[in-house]
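User: Fold this one for me? It's Sugar ABC transporter permease.
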Amino acid sequence: MTTAPADPIVKPESAPPAEPAAPGPKRSSVARRLVPFGYLSPTIVLIVVLMIVPIVMVISYSFRDNVIVQENSVFAGLANYTDVLTDPDFLAAIKNTGIFITVSMVAHLLLGLGFAMMLNSPLLGGVAKSLFRVVYVLPWLFTIAVIAVIWRLLLDPSGVVNYVLNALGLIDQGVDWLGSPSTALWVVTFANIWSGYPFFMISLLAGLQGIPGELYEAASVDGASPWRKFLHVTLPQLRPVIISMAVLDLIWTSQQFALIWMMTGGGPLNSTEMLSTFTYKLAFSEYEFATASASAVVVLLLTMILAFFYVRQQRER
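Assistant: Here's what I get for Sugar ABC transporter permease.
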């Protein structure tokens, strides 16, 4: 008996290899670089409109005469800068500003460091530290307007300060602290110190709490006294914070306007005239906008110098 031959196995024809999919369109390198600027565009527009454009306008005004008050201004070159730099009131404002910011910065540093070390001391209990923190931070919570009003009332000839001094027998009659050219600048400086030291205190307290305790333990093992611990452990560890805060305080204090304007208005007899009040009076009291623009540019250059040192110090850190 013969059997039929089995059907031969037919192998399926191999499918042709699939062609690789065409690569999608690649985004150009220019488009990739522009994507971050798309996200930043709202902020960039605000900076340009609110900062860059006004600065450019003020700089252009400083080289012209009769700006804003007249339709057709004329190019004046460096005449406005010459008028400003030779103005006795401007020179007095530079002197007063230098005294104001230097004394304020040094006092802010000393008071802030002293109070911060006291609040960081283990000798105080938790309740006492909380109470002192509230008391010491209070001046920082008031607005400049409130601070100016408080000190004007306290320093009035019939105010609390004169009453206390008279009761202690230190003065015979009320002293017009803000009306005397010999005392007005120091009184305004004191008010600025009082309102600004809490920021130094908080920053330095944070720096003190970040110093490792092992450093003090090692210093104690070596027989270091508290004073040497302060010189060789505390100050070196706080150096970056101190430098940063000092430069920032110089920048902020040099631009102080509201406190001075509301307490003395730059008087009496220009004894408290600062660069900020001098520029304001030129623009909005005498309507010398071109000269005021030149004064503002000078202030901008001085502030940029301080900002340069601050940025450089931050990069070194």
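One thing worth pointing out: The domain at 93-316 is CATH 1.10.3720.10 (MetI-like fold).
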